[in-house]
Amino acid sequence: MKYAFTAKGESWDSEIDPRLGRTEFILIYDDKKNELSAYSNSEITQQAHGAGPLTVQKIIDLNPDILITGNGPGKNAAEVMSTSEIKIITGAGDMKIKEALEAYKSDKITG
Amino acid sequence: MKEIVVISGKGGTGKTSVMGSFSYLGKSDLVIADCDVDAADLHMLLGPDYQRSEDYYSGELAILDQDKCINCGACLSVCQFDGIQSENGTFRIEAMNCEGCGYCQRVCPTNAIQMETQKVGEWYTSSSKVGSTMVHAKLGVGAENSGRLVAQVKNEARRHAKKEGKEIILIDGSPGIGCAVNSALSGADYVVFVTEPSVSGIHDLKRVTELVKGFSIRSGCIINKCDLNSQMLDELITFMADAGIEHIASIPYDETFTAAMLEGKTLVEYDKGPASQVLIKSWEKIKQFAETEGCLK
């Protein structure tokens, strides 16, 4: 299973970025390889408009099964998201990355 | 830390008066972020001291190098915005009209046109007269607010809240459903709508409710000027119940809103009349709602 997180940093101890479109980083955790990789989103956060759809496109390109984030996508971003099979899990806005993964696995946060 | 966003959908419903009063009531427990940057007016009520300012750059402007220009007119023929003016066979850029699209630069055969990023405004970190930190911005004439500027203001507010150990960030969002409103909502924990029982009030509330639902954020509504039209009021209350919006309070039309504004005061500091009493109770309710965990789906 491949998980994507919107994050404020690059490690398991980083906080979830509650924003999707202008998240600072996108983290990908592949549990088969037990590997956490970080992708900076700074180029997109510098865009004046349309950050949501651009970030979602970037996430789709990274091909995760599940996205764990704070609020979820806005209207335009949701439209792009609906072209993929990625499951969106919201409500992790106050958590660290490792806590968010645990919370998802124990059904404390859902779609 | 909780982000509470105050928005109205429609302009002129009394959002700034409500926002100003909440800022006054929350005093030093919060950090204030004015993200209604197109028509920033909260500073008139909260007296920020403009402690720190930073330039804000956004959008581009075409700059024409006359030495390289061969006066071919290619730029003029493609510009859709009257951004190129010709006079006696020479050309110049009309800065007020230029949209920054870059089409002229693309077609120029001698590379005489360069696109330059523009300083369109400033953003500030201030200490407000109520004692809390306030992050706000000011745009130049014709400059537009953007999701990026709102995100920047919010991020700075969040940084201060963290540093100062404040639990609440109170955000003033713009009317409408555009990019700036999306950016104000993204990452928020609770939304306070300020609306009025009128056709446009209800219409715009419905529009923005769709947006808020998409973000899965819980919300409540203050109905200002609730005695404006009883039929519209019924419609509004029915809509709110169906949409799962908490009815925080109703405020009858009250001229102290204007009187307080004329003195540059928030309503709750101006007097302790009925409208102020409603706002004091509302703020208590909102703090409780915001602290309740879980999102409304």
Keywords, separated by commas or semicolons:
heterodimer; A: 111 residues; alpha/beta; Nucleotidyltransferase, domain 5; B: 297 residues; Rossmann fold; Alpha-Beta Plaits; 2 domains; nine-stranded mixed beta sheet; elongated
Structure, explained:
The complex is a heterodimer of chains A (111) and B (297). Chain A is α/β, with parallel strands linked by helices. Chain A has helices at 42-45, 51-62, 75-81, 97-105, and strands spanning 2-7, 25-30, 35-40, 66-68, 87-89. Chain A has one domain (2-105): Dinitrogenase iron-molybdenum cofactor biosynthesis domain (Nucleotidyltransferase, domain 5), CATH 3.30.420.130. Chain A contains four helices and five strands; from the N terminus they run βββααβαβα. Chain A has a five-stranded mixed beta sheet, with helices on one face. Chain B is an alpha/beta fold and 297 residues long. Chain B has two domains: 2-47 and 128-291, Rossmann fold (3-Layer(aba) Sandwich); 59-119, 2-Layer Sandwich (Alpha-Beta Plaits), CATH 3.30.70.20. Chain B is built from eleven helices and eleven strands. A nine-stranded mixed beta sheet of chain B has the order 3-6-7-2-8-1-9-10-11, with helices on both faces. A two-stranded antiparallel sheet of chain B has the order 4-5. In chain B, helix 1 crosses helix 11 (274-291) and helix 5 runs parallel beside helix 6 (179-185). The two termini of chain B are 21 Å apart. The chains are: A alpha/beta (111), B alpha/beta (297). At the A-B interface, loops of A face helix 5, helix 6 and helix 7 of B.
